[in-house]
# Entry
Amino acid sequence: MQLSTNFSLSEFTRSDTAKRLGIVNECSSVEQVLNLAYLCHTVLQPLRDRFGPIRITSGYRCPQLNDAVGGASNSQHMRGEAADIYLPTKAKGEEYYEFMKNLPAFDQLIWERSGGTYWIHVSIRRLGGNRKQVKSIVKN
Ligand SMILES: [Zn+2]
# Structure
């Protein structure tokens, strides 16, 4: 199922961890799919239009997968409101980050680092109440 010009639902549900653990990571409500489509239209497609192909490393997570990857208990990934974006280089990541910071709406934009790996977590709430919160987190 296509969510926007260049993003399909399968990019948001595929997970190596889910595959390895035999977890079926599929959306369980229309709301979750609508949220992912909204995330594409408002954040990810504009990013893609500006920079070319974007790789999503984690999009939707069913509760079982969210537990398996150690996600927060109220993670927006479980509602289809968030995506983690692969950064080909740190410099390219910084360009993505600057671009998204200036988008009209998002809920959280988080620069995350674990060891030598960087990624960006971005979320948006389709029904409003977006905080435009920008921060960076180091995980170990
Ligand atoms: Zn995330």
Observations:
- DSSP finds five helices and seven strands in the chain.
